[in-house]
Amino acid sequence: MSSKNGANMFRSLASRLTLFYTLLFAALSLLVFGVIQYNLRSNLRERIDQEFLGDGREFVEIFQHGGFEALSREIHLETEGEGIDLVFIRLYSADLQLIETSDLRSWGDLPQPASTLKNLRQGQFETINLTSHPGQARIFYQPLGKDYILQSGTLLSFDEALLASFQQVFFLTFAFVLVAAVSIGFYISRRSLAGVKIVRETADQISRGNLSQEITFHDQAEEVNHLITSINRMQSRIKTLIKELQDVTNNIAHDLRSPVTRIRGLAETTLSGVQSLQEYQGMSGSVIEECDSLVGMINTMLEIAETDAGVTPLEKTPVNLSAIIRDVAELYSPVAEDRSIHISLKIIDDPLIVSGDRGRLQRAFANLLDNALKFTPEGGWIALEAKQENHCAQIRIADSGAGIATKDLPRVWERFYRADSSRSTPGTGLGLSLVRSIILAHDGQIDITSAQRAGTQVTVCINIAATGS
User: Fold this and answer.
1) What is the DSSP string of 148-169?
2) At what angle do helices 222-272 and 277-309 cross, to 10 degrees?
3) pLDDT digits 0-9 by tens, 73-99
4) Class of domain 317-463 as given by CATH
């Protein structure tokens, strides 16, 4: 059980960050300790070597001015003054024959100089291990002219004790600071990740269906604030999509219920009694019309979904929007004439070439004109305009219809949405949704402005195709 709890603990990001920073701190501390200890050892060794060099120069001067007797006397005075158990001095001939020595009773068996030191011409240092002392000694060999070699040695016990004290103080301090670093690191990690914990808890509530829960800011780190903003924006988008889904579901239920009810009524009529062949044919034709209406609605829904998702690729070719607007106007002219609606065209002479799917663009503008005809009363007017605005082909369709209420205007692009004033007008509420999907699939823009009893204007902009495309 304890091993399982330990494993779970290190799955926590706060624990991992604490462990990481603790190990990093420990490694850096040990590195600093190693550098300081190395420099301290080097400085202590340098101090001893400089003392050896100074003493060596003094011995050379004494030997040069006072001869062997003065040198022998200075050897004994030097070792007795420093302490015979801390310092020793021996004088060798050039061929390493011992000539004079200080009191060596506390030094035990000192090793003899290496044969490589014969005929030494310049000072030389070495460090040796002692058998009579638990430590080391530093040795200096100083040539005295061509005939003698002076060997000086001192114990390194003081330096070793100083280094041992330094190590002890360091590791005691290191242990205390390491515990403090773990505590402070864990606190800082938990404090830094407090915002993440809030996000996680709120996300858990959202995943359980509580979409009303939002994350509030509490002076978190900038990265956490960005995360909170993104999640709140995503949550708002989810709520909007769910609301739209509910509206679409309600509208689908409403729009599908009527044709299904009519089909059922026709079927019940055929079962209510014997009908003539002509009546059966009439009812069959009505059933086919209702089925075609349902199939058309379903196909439009699928086309909108595929266009929005980019599943069906556009068959892009150079398309002249001016020609498409003229064709659409000509196609709907008989309908407009029957209702005494005047359609005016204002199209530039130069072609408006865009890269697009001709069939879909034609359907989009046909839907816009059809929609304008539906809501324009008899004797009204519809104006079509095509021009180039900067690098954009701009198509504007305006009418003198009843207009759209301000509260309904933001929702006209939603699938199946139909304002209350348009419920009596034939249609499924999918036309403008399909138009918007097609225009956006062409990287275009579409905008609508309207007011009740003041008509409606739809403006479409699609980038002009590059020359040679």
Assistant:
1) EEEEEEEE-HHHHHHHHHHHHH
2) 170
3) 888 888 888 888 889 998 888 888 888
4) alpha beta
- C-alpha distances in angstroms, 36 versus 97, 178, 286, 390? 42, 19, 99, 71
Task: Tell me the pLDDT of the chain averaged across its residues.
Answer: 80
Q: How many residues does the chain have?
A: 469
Q: Which fold has domain 222-309?
A: Helix Hairpins (1.10.287)
Name, in order, each residue with C-beta under 8 angstroms of 405's C-beta and a sequence gap of 6 or more.
Answer: 419, 421, 452
Helix segments in 83-130, DSSP class H: none
- Domain 2-103+115-163 is found in CATH 1.10.357: no
Q: Give me the pLDDT at residue 11, please.
A: 61
At 120, list the tokens: 């030494």
- Locate the domains of the chain by residue range: 2-103+115-163, 222-309, 317-463
Residue with tokens 């839907």: 367
Q: What's the confidence (pLDDT) of residue 421? A: 52
At residue 319, what is the residue type?
A: V
Q: State the pLDDT at residue 1.
A: 44
DSSP conformation letters of 220-236: --HHHHHHHHHHHHHHH
Q: What is the pLDDT of residue 375?
A: 86
φ, ψ of residue 104 in degrees (nearest 5):
-110, 20
* CB atoms near residue 12 (< 10 Å): 14
pLDDT in tens, 200-239: 777 777 777 666 666 666 656 666 777 777 777 877 777 7
DSSP count for the chain of H helices, then E strands? 9, 12
User: What would the DSSP string read from start to end of 49-92?
Assistant: HHHHHHHHHHHHHHHHHHHHHHHHHHHHHHHHHH-TTTEEEEEE
Proportion of the chain above pLDDT 90, given as a percent: 15
